[in-house]
């Protein structure tokens, strides 16, 4: 195919505004771009910085941006454009606000000299995009950033959920997509892919994980208390491989005062080297969250570091010095831990995280449960012992996890199932042109 932008098929990408969704969409967009697809990526102004690494890697005729003002909503604080700034309870309000972009996107499409042939979107949350694609007469491609094990579990409850308006709409839009892309790989849970194909009635269901992280000179995330290169230099100085515990709970979880104290006490008592990622508290929540215990950093100086704000998590987890990872079990974080080959210590908090924990702990026997629940407070003595023992190289959970990691690597490499799925997806989109 010629590299001429006029001959390349064009798609519109509309992600759900949360880091755990935006970043996989960006990584998938990059893979499609290098396979000959032209992309317009829609964002609101405060989320545009996420695209900097992606845009810096591609010609402006290949990756374009559509920046639309975030619609106001009476239940959302002014200035909020990302789920990391609010709680899960406001997700439906976020859906409602974003649906007001229907008409602006419609107007953009109708005035475009070479409009897209498909919309790539999150079918379970961006429910307004499926009817938009139908109105425009183009294909809708759903990208599920959760794993297929979770999504197939949702399908098991299809009859009950479809009776509720929003969930029914969500499931209909998911199943009625022209194609489904899932942030997982067939070797992890092959039966779930067959479930999807049965529900959709077609074979355009692809697992594409683990997606390679977009790497560029531009920083991938937002403001941080410690620059990424300094974090990596600190890890480089660690003389023993797999000797550092990384602690991070994603972009939407903030721990309360009691949880922070219990975790800080455990890290202090454990004696392990560590990196603790502390999310900056939202301006719209309680003021007692994400508060590092008084004097903690002085007491652990040299042995551990605390990073406030954005953390180069993917780079940290791939570093030879990191051996285990205390995680909230968000699927993007689980995949990054899988790629990095670090043992997971699970503390699921909300949403699909409980099911992710069930997969890696109960189904695969490849992770260590630590705690569970958004308000749960771990026993610091027990947690300290788990942190220390998690670095032992002969743990059966670590051995099992490394086997899964190898399967994931094989899937992503050239000739693997996910690599071939990306090729097939790009080919099918090209045929729409």
Report on the architecture of this protein:
- With 433 residues, the protein is α/β, with parallel strands linked by helices.
- It has two domains: 10-215 and 411-432, Glycogen Phosphorylase B (Rossmann fold, 3-Layer(aba) Sandwich); 228-393, Rossmann fold.
- 41% of the residues lie in helices and 14% in strands.
- The protein is built from 18 helices and 13 strands.
- The protein has helices at 19-33, 52-57, 91-98, 102-111, 129-136, 148-156, 158-161, 165-175, 190-200, 228-236, 257-270, 296-299, 313-318, 331-340, 353-363, 380-389, 396-412, 417-432, and strands at residues 10-14, 38-43, 63-67, 118-121, 139-144, 179-182, 205-207, 244-248, 273-278, 304-308, 322-327, 343-346, 367-369.
- The chain has a seven-stranded parallel β-sheet with strand order 3-2-1-4-5-6-7, sandwiched between helices. Strands 10-9-8-11-12-13 form a six-stranded parallel β-sheet.
């Amino acid at each position: 195919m010629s590299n001429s932008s006029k001959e390349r098929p064009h798609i519109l990408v509309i992600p759900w505004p949360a880091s755990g969704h935006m970043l996989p969409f960006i990584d998938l967009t990059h893979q499609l771009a290098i396979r000959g697809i032209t992309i317009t990526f829609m964002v609101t102004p405060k989320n545009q910085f996420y695209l900097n690494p992606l845009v810096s890697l591609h010609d402006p005729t290949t990756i374009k941006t559509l920046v639309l003002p975030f619609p106001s909503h009476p239940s959302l604080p002014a200035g909020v454009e990302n789920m990391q700034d609010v709680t899960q309870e406001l997700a439906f309000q976020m859906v409602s606000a974003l649906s007001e972009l229907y008409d602006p996107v419609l107007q953009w499409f109708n005035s475009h000299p070479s409009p897209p042939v498909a919309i790539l979107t999150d079918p379970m949350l961006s429910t307004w995009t499926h009817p938009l694609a139908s109105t425009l007469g183009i294909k809708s491609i759903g990208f599920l950033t959760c794993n297929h094990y979770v999504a197939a579990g949702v399908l098991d409850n299809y009859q009950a959920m479809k009776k509720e308006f929003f969930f029914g709409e969500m499931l209909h839009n998911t199943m009625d997509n022209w194609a489904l892309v899932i942030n997982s790989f067939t070797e992890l849970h092959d039966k779930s892919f067959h479930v999807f194909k049965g529900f959709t009635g077609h074979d355009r269901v692809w697992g594409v994980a683990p997606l390679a992280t977009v790497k560029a000179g531009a920083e991938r995330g937002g403001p941080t208390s410690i620059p990424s290169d300094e974090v990596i230099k600190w890890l480089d100085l660690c003389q023993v491989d797999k000797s550092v515990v990384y602690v991070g709970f994603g972009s939407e979880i903030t721990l309360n005062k009691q949880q922070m104290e219990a975790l800080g006490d455990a890290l202090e008592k454990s004696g392990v080297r560590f990196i603790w990622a502390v999310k900056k508290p939202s301006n719209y929540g309680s003021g007692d969250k994400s508060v590092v215990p008084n004097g903690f950093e002085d007491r652990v100086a040299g042995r551990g570091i605390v990073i406030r704000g954005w953390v180069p998590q993917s780079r940290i987890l791939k570093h030879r010095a990191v051996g285990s990872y205390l995680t909230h079990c968000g699927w993007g974080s689980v995949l990054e831990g899988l790629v990095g080959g670090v043992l997971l210590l699970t503390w699921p908090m909300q949403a699909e995280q409980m099911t992710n924990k069930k997969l890696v702990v109960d189904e695969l026997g490849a992770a260590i449960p630590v705690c569970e629940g958004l308000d749960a407070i771990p026993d610091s003595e027990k947690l300290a012992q788990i942190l220390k023992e998690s670095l032992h190289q002969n743990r059966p959970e670590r051995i099992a996890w490394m086997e899964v990691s190898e399967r994931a690597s094989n899937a992503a490499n050239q000739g693997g199932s996910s690599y071939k799925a990306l090729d097939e997806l790009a080919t099918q989109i090209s045929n729409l042109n």
